[in-house]
What we know:
The chain is α/β, with parallel strands linked by helices. It has 24 helices and 29 strands. It has four domains: 17-187, no CATH class; 216-440, 2-enoyl-CoA Hydratase, Chain A, domain 1, CATH 3.90.226.10; 501-659 and 727-770, 2-enoyl-CoA Hydratase, Chain A, domain 1 (Alpha-Beta Complex); 664-725. The radius of gyration is 33 Å and the shape is elongated.
Amino acid sequence: MSPRLIGHVSYRGLGPRQRVGLARLGSFVLERLPGADDVYCFWARSRAVPEDERLFVLAEVRGRTSDEVDDAALHIAAFERVFHQATSALRALRSARDPRRRLHWNRITIAVGPAIALDAPAIEDIARRLMPATWHLGLEKVVVRLRLRDRVRRMTAEPVELAVSDLTGSRMEIAIRAPVTAPLEPATDHERKVVEARRRRLVYPYEIVRMLTGGNGRGPAAAFQEYDLDPARGEPRAVCVSHRPYGQNAAGVVFGIISTPSDKVPEGVRRVLILSDCTREMGALAAPECDRIVAAIDLAERLRLPVEWIPISSGARIAMDSGTENLDATARVARRIITFTERGGVIHLIVYGVNVGAQSYWNALAAMAGHTRGALIMTPDASMVLTGRAALEASGGVSAEDEVALGGFERIMGPNGEAQYYASDLAAAVRTLDEHYGYTYVFPGEAGPRWHRTRDPFGRDITKCPYPTEHGHGFATVGEIFDDAINPGRKRPFAMRAVMQALVDRDGGHLERWRSWAGAETAIVWDAHLGGVPICLIGIESHNVAREGYRPLDGPAAWNGGTLFPLSSKKVARALNAASGNRPVVILANLSGFDGSPESLRELQLEHGAEIARAVVNFDGPLLFLVVSRYHGGAYVVFSKSLNPRLRAMALTGSYASVIGGSAAAAVVFTREVRARAAADPTVRRARETLRTDPPAAARDAYEQALAEATRVAQAEVAAEFDDIHTVERACRVGSLDEVIEPRRVRPALIRALHEACRGRHDAVATSRRLTARHVPIDSPP
């Protein structure tokens, strides 16, 4: 339905125009639309900027009681009813006018008649409860005009406005201000670009800057300094343009230095921020964009800062006036990403929209290649594809229903491990990256991430921690896993996450990386704190994990606990490379070896297993290895002390370390000894003698049964003797292990080793800088 442009509006049924905010709309041509009682709807077009079209919904909550009566619950209920009527009306109007071009930058204004007793937390609680009703309405903001009552002094304050806005579709902002009566101005160029981005369900880059610099109320305010290319230089060179108003970028890339304070780094977590401008040809890449990306990476390397990249891109620019030179420009960026990351530079990526072609390859070079350390976070609407769906279909290629099905997190990038974290939306992705910085961020000039000020006692006994009942393994506490009476031979399955949770600092949190990687479930990677020290904690899952989807007949029916499969091997190697040179790694191992099935060998088991050894050899920093149950075979080799002199290997009392497990040794290696013992068994000897005199059929059956039973007993005996010899104590005597510790002393022993290794790693200046009163753990090492 196309709007009927009229110069006046019928005000029949409206309350005072100033009260509902109608007087502010004089700069717009209005057309009144149908609405419920006390809900007044208008289509509006700016007189000065005709392309500025919006929908305004004005509503009124009339007073039902005297202002002297404090009945906040009644008034809040009435407000919520009117609010839902207003949002329902706006949703219907957006769909009815033109489904192909739904209007954005709309506004809801509600005037509340009676005074209400509300404090700031109550206002925020109401706003969060009502927020879902505003989704997908194209709202600029919701304005509520009311008078707030003071419950204590029973006084009614002057009228105020509550302005509730949402910059990214998920981050709510509430401002309490004096009522604004000035005429509403047409949308500025900046606001129209915001609207254009929102129509595509994307975010204008300067709105992302506003979201990131919103502040957290602690310490110095967040800040962004925009940079651009220096026009006086021939080669790409960044120069600060912080004096320039937002939105003056001449290319589809915006970059600069952003600093946000945190508990650990009150001075500000500084990094180079690169943003794509989705309003410019959907972030198409040509020389101007690529030169700015190269300049941003140069700036990060010069200042020793990480790069934070939030890209939206349709790939290399396709136009009549440019061609292969755009591909050459993207290749220059690829080369710069490679040189930057190989020198230790870090690039973190948040993908919240479509990335095509060159941008997807850049993402792979920055955060998917084996040597890289950056995090890659994706949202439900994000995708990384080589060719868009339409182009694939036009060329006759195999496509999917949309770009998310081609390269989204749920079906592709999460299960294949190329995306490391999942976030529900852009704001959640930013929070995840902030949490990642809490474990990994290195302030320029310092030797590593700052320590966490923990209140968790260093000497805490992890064996007393309760074992989660939902796992169904029959353990009441973590300590029962290591109890020889309850778990003889350490052969019962258990959940390694329960041990990891018991070990790390209770007040330090943890963040799991690559959790959605299908086929890699037997390796667990956490970032956490131990004794205040930021660490990468790697655990080997110790119970079987069900396989989902297609399974080859020559592969295992389940992901067996204590076993490394091809992709779990790759995950461990990636985790070691990501932590190298940044923070210590602690490995909790219940590891019987690598899977040797035909499927695993076909899926590059040898290559991925060898990559663990390479990662250990090249690891820069403290590396602690703890055997919690069993440790055999090729897995022992890739974590051997002989690979890296910095590796410190320990084991719990009662655990096992050998070339092969006792049961396997008895069944495969010591078969002659087993046969000799079985043949010497008195029952077998009597059955053999009987075989010579009795009828052959019955006697042979008895003999074979006796021999089978004696063989089982002999195998058990040989296995037990082998395990009794090849204990962790023997491994310690021959130098394969450094120390054998009691389970109750796991936490203090690892913390002591970490502190000793960190003191050995850093010089006196770096140590004194990190171990300030603000950051040093409260307890001292035991």
